[in-house]
Design a protein that fits this description.
single chain, alpha+beta, Immunoglobulin-like, five-stranded mixed beta sheet, elongated
Length: 370
């Protein structure tokens, strides 16, 4: 009995499943002698492996001790992976174990079987199939509009609202999937890619993160979610905005907390940032409409040149308070990794919205300044 148990513990299949991924594929023989490449995420980088197709078959073995995302690439011209040109691509999830692939004309339409993670992803796709169809229909509806209709602000706002509603429904479906599958890498993947974002409800997403299996939390995606949650506790919706102080163009020290009692849009920008400059007319419009109704703006520039900053303020007609964050200390505290970026604070200094662009800002102000 002991020998049988030892044999089972040391069996090749059990040992293999611990730290390797194997993929055996069957393709059309017209692809003979061509290389097929497997690219997968390993920690924070990409790892590339390949195999030559012989008699319509290929076999790739790689070291793998945890789930990952991967793509298969095949250039039907037989050129190197580095050469430019269209590649036949199949995207999928992998984990330690053995999988098989069947494909006829294109690997993009391949069928891969043999891994639990593939079954879990299939279940996820079934759950999101209906909402994805609705999103695709909305995109097609918008694409069919005339250029004049697409440029109509009311039409655009209507589509944005409908899109936001559908995306909210999709997120609810993902939350339910994550909650019901806390040990699945698929849950972690979509928690990271779609739920743990700048507009997330931090306590809700933190609850989902805490429910995950420990091995998922230590995954690179798990660490990314944790990092966003930590930042969200500083700049998340409902959080009291952290106070800061800098100087105006006139050299006067000004604190964010001095604006309490008003709705304040904290706007991070720079004179060299073209998207920021293009957004400024919308800010000017919102400021003029609501400045006498308890709303103001506090600009925080990350410019290095005070002269360029002051010139841009004058050129764009920015009549609200401006601060220069040359050390980027404020930007770092607020997790600013790209601009333009803004935060709308209520009268108590709590963050109630983020990244309000174009008409979205005026729509939000219309809602809160009733």
């Amino acid at each position: 009995m002991k020998k049988l148990l030892l044999a089972l513990l040391l069996s090749p299949s059990l040992l293999f499943a611990q730290d390797k991924f194997s993929l055996k594929g069957q393709l059309d023989t017209k692809n003979n002698n061509k290389k097929i490449y497997l690219v997968h995420l390993e920690d924070q980088g990409e790892k590339i492996d390949s195999a030559v197709i012989n008699n319509g078959q290929f076999h790739i073995d790689i070291q793998l001790d945890k789930p990952s995302i991967a793509i298969l690439l095949l250039d039907h011209t037989g050129n190197s992976l580095k050469n430019q040109g269209a590649k036949d691509i199949y995207r999928f999830f992998i984990e330690p174990g053995q999988a098989t692939l069947q494909a006829k004309d294109s690997i993009a339409k391949a069928t891969v079987k043999g891994l639990k993670i593939l079954d879990e992803n299939k279940a996820f796709e079934e759950n999101t199939k209906l909402i994805n169809t609705k999103l695709e229909s909305l995109n097609k509806e918008f694409a069919s509009l005339s250029d004049a209709k697409k440029a109509d602000q009311d039409v655009l706002l209507s589509f944005q609202k409908r899109y936001a509603t559908l995306m909210g429904e999709r997120q609810d479906i993902i939350k339910k999937f994550v909650s019901g599958n806390p040990s699945s890498f698929i849950s972690l993947y979509y928690l990271n890619s779609e739920l743990a974002n700048d507009e997330m409800n931090v306590p809700e997403i933190e609850g989902l993160y805490n429910s995950l299996a420990e091995n998922l939390k230590s995954n690179i995606f798990g660490k990314m979610v944790k990092q966003r949650l930590d930042q969200g506790k500083v700049t998340g919706i409902g959080v009291l905005a952290k106070d800061f102080e800098e100087k105006t163009p006139e050299g006067i020290s000004l604190k964010l907390s001095s604006f309490k009692g008003q709705y304040v849009l904290v706007d991070f920008w720079a004179s060299w940032c073209m998207p920021c400059r293009q957004e400024n007319p919308h800010l000017v419009s919102a400021y003029e409409k609501y400045k006498d109704k308890g709303f103001t703006i506090l600009g925080v520039s990350i410019d290095q040149s005070a002269d360029a900053w002051k010139k841009a303020i004058k050129t764009d007609g920015l009549l609200w308070a401006q601060l220069l964050d040359t050390t980027q200390k404020i930007a770092m505290e607020y997790g600013i990794d790209a601009i333009p970026k803004n935060y709308l604070l209520d009268k108590d200094g709590k963050i109630i919205a983020k990244n309000l662009r174009g008409l979205a800002l005026e729509e939000k102000l219309k809602e809160v300044l009733k």
